[in-house]
Amino acid sequence: MGATLAAPLVVSAIGTAAALLSITSFAPQIVKIWREKDASSVSLRTYVVTVAGFSCWITYGVLIKAWPVIASNTACLLMSGAVLVLKWRFDRRG
Fold it and tell me: What is the pTM of this model?
């Protein structure tokens, strides 16, 4: 019985860790852009594709009714969207 309870806990822990790491991975980029007021080194195409990808993941999560997929990808969308907004605001090349 202990093994059957441990498996869902391990799966949940791995899923939670993956979500938290994915969400927080955008924070250093956001902080760097904000501090330097420069986003010229950020790829606009990359972040447009990233935002589109998270939007698709959210749609997928809604369709399969999987709140962990919806919640984690919504948080990632907000973080990557913030990078995209900062890119438009602080891009020195344009």
Answer: 0.85
